[in-house]
Predict the 3D structure of the following.
Amino acid sequence: MTLPLGRLLANRYRLEKEIGRGGTATVYRGFDPLMERTVAIKTFPPHILGTETAKEQFTTEVRVIGQLEHPHILPIYDCGHEGNTPFIVMRFADNGSLANELSKGLPTLDRVAEVFDQVTRGLNYAHQRGMVHRDIKPQNVLVEASGDLYIGDFSLAILINAKQESESQQTTTGTAYYMSPEQCRGLPVDARSDIYSLGAMLYEMTTGTRPYEGANWAEIVVQVLQDDPPLPRSLNPNIPDEVQDVILKAMEREPSERFGSAREMARALSDSI
């Protein structure tokens, strides 16, 4: 659902420009006249939260995420509903996403290590508080002009938690290119699922390609469940063996075979460069 530009949400936030669109949300650059600042506004289709219970749980979960105060987690400022359309107001990252950065070419290994140092600090903080992101990917790592990074879009976890509270069911949602096998199967996930996604992101950052490609969501999921991706060094021989080992360990099909924490993975990567 597209909202008209110039519209005010909650009689406060003005929609200025659509800057992103995905399967579950649309993101706008907006303006908050009360605080006199540019913000990012994410809106969700009305059917995403079909019951009053889900709507209430959505608000509760947003407040929980809003309490995650960390230098590398994108701050949430506000949330609400415009009619039946849920929305979240967040900090606006002025340099786009890591995906934009990767579109310009492979980063140096030093930059890769810097990215993972920052991202895993924020992710580890969330994991220690029982929050699983479920959609780690370059598009959800936001970049400031200063070079500082923020993990964005914890909204997938919010929506899944809200649906489970209201419907008592597991929901298979996410970006298939980076999803863990257990997430693809719709099984319960923990922090190790995010570590798999970090491995898939590291694969892309060092090879220039995602570990799996397919014509549609279902085709990619089948590959994730059944096939091993090409070895990273077969695509980029300049990757050190030790970096390849980090990627493969993070992407093990069995969660118990992966790194024990995001920070453990970052330290192993730093040591291998």
Summary: The longest strand covers residues 13-21. The two ends are 45 Å apart (CA to CA). DSSP finds ten helices and eight strands in the chain.
